[in-house]
């Protein structure tokens, strides 16, 4: 396996259960070989079939291995899609929360609003922590993505709140 694939956490999570199988099947040392001297020299068809049989077996084993890797990949992609759906739902709900906010008088300070927004992001992240699926790395990645998207939504809200504070002082 190339160093790039080994360093990629996602590939590692997909291929880890199959690593021993891949290594076993891709090493050519395990292929049994034979020489024509060991076989019936007069029956070349039989020798050819005998000689290529391990290669045919190797190809079918690689096919089965690829099938299992593909199934693991599709399962991983399904988990990713489930997490993407959760992230999308969380972002929509958070956006609704931000849009429902009414700035009242007396206002809170900008620093206090930043604290409130951080608390909301933490609240949503902790809530969705219970619902994300997959291995630990995948769950962590999904939660990090959720946190990043929620924080991105906070920036325009803070700009709007700053404008509100300026309008009060003007």
UniProtKB/TrEMBL annotation:
Record GO biological process: erythrocyte differentiation; protein folding; protein stabilization
Primary location group: cytoplasm
Localization of this protein: Cytoplasm
Keyword Oxidoreductase recorded: no
InterPro entries with a match to the protein in the record: A_Hb_stabilising_prot, AHSP_sf
Presence of the UniProt keyword Hydrolase in the record: no
Key words, A-Z: Chaperone, Cytoplasm
A Pfam family the protein falls into: AHSP
Gene Ontology, cellular component aspect: cytoplasm
Any one GO molecular-function label of the UniProt entry: hemoglobin binding
Entries under SUPFAM superfamilies matching the protein: Alpha-hemoglobin stabilizing protein AHSP (SSF109751)
Domain of life according to the entry: Eukaryota
Family, per entry: Belongs to the AHSP family.
Assembly information from the UniProt record: Monomer. Forms a heterodimer with free alpha-hemoglobin. Does not bind beta-hemoglobin nor alpha(2)beta(2) hemoglobin A.
Entry protein name: Alpha-hemoglobin-stabilizing protein
Species of the source: Hipposideros armiger
Taxonomic placement: Eukaryota, Metazoa, Chordata, Craniata, Vertebrata
Gene name of the encoded protein: AHSP
């Amino acid at each position: 396996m190339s160093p790039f694939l080994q360093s990629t956490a996602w590939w590692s999570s997909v291929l880890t259960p199959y690593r021993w199988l891949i290594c076993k099947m891709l090493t050519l040392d395990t292929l049994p070989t034979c020489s024509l001297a060991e076989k019936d020299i007069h029956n070349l068809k039989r020798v050819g079939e005998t000689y290529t049989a391990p290669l045919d077996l190797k190809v079918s084993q690689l096919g089965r291995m690829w099938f299992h890797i593909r199934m693991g990949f599709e399962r991983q992609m399904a988990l990713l899609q489930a997490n993407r759906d959760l992230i999308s739902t969380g972002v929509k709900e958070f956006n609704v929360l931000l849009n429902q906010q009414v700035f009242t008088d007396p206002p809170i300070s900008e620093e206090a609003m930043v604290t409130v927004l951080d608390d909301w992001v933490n609240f949503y992240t902790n809530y969705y922590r219970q619902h994300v699926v997959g291995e630990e790395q995948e769950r962590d990645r999904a939660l990090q993505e959720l946190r990043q998207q929620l924080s991105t939504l906070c920036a325009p809200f803070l700009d709007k709140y700053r404008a509100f504070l300026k309008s009060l002082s003007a």
